[in-house]
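BUG: 3D viewer hangs when loading the predicted structure for this chain

Environment: internal workstation, default settings.
Expected: structure renders.
Actual: progress bar stalls at 90%.

Input used:
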Amino acid sequence: MMLAWRSAVEATPVARRFYEQCGTKTQIEEMRFDIGEESSTRRKPTLILLMRGPESLNVWA
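Structure tokens produced before the viewer hung:
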């Protein structure tokens, strides 16, 4: 039996290039947040989801 690992990283646009150099690939360009009305005036972070691992484990397909 062979085990396969898949890693996920939430990154800011500034850190994206670093993680791509480490072999991760962008899966979600910009994550959306549902933070509710009470926090709607707050600034939302810009995050990107990057993943690395066997393509056969692509859970986002």
